[in-house]
Design a protein that fits this description.
Layout lengths: L1 E6 L5 E6 L5 H7 L19 E4 L12 H8 L8 E3 L12 E4 L5
Parallel strand pairs: 1-5
Antiparallel strand pairs: 1-2, 3-4, 3-5
Amino acid sequence: MIRLKIENPAGEMREIGVQAEGSLMEAIRDNGFDELLASCGGGCSCGTCHVVIDTASFSQLAAMSADEDSLLDGCDHREKGSRLSCQIRMSDELDGLKLRIPPNS
């Protein structure tokens, strides 16, 4: 079981346990975080699954693609730890990952 610590836009922190399957976007959405819009369903074409990864957890992730970087440029709340959750595959290495869903993601 992979533990994820997720802060919603209101500042409320919740820890969930998920399997090492699918994307981070699916894990967040499937655990009741309605604040993550994920409008394109994981196609890396809209930017509405934007999350901000805690700096201590950022090194656990694979490198960002040029397409993801370009889409994040259009996000209002891009930060150093910004990623598109649809582009992060769940794996055991992500256990303990901390992230925040920014406003209007």
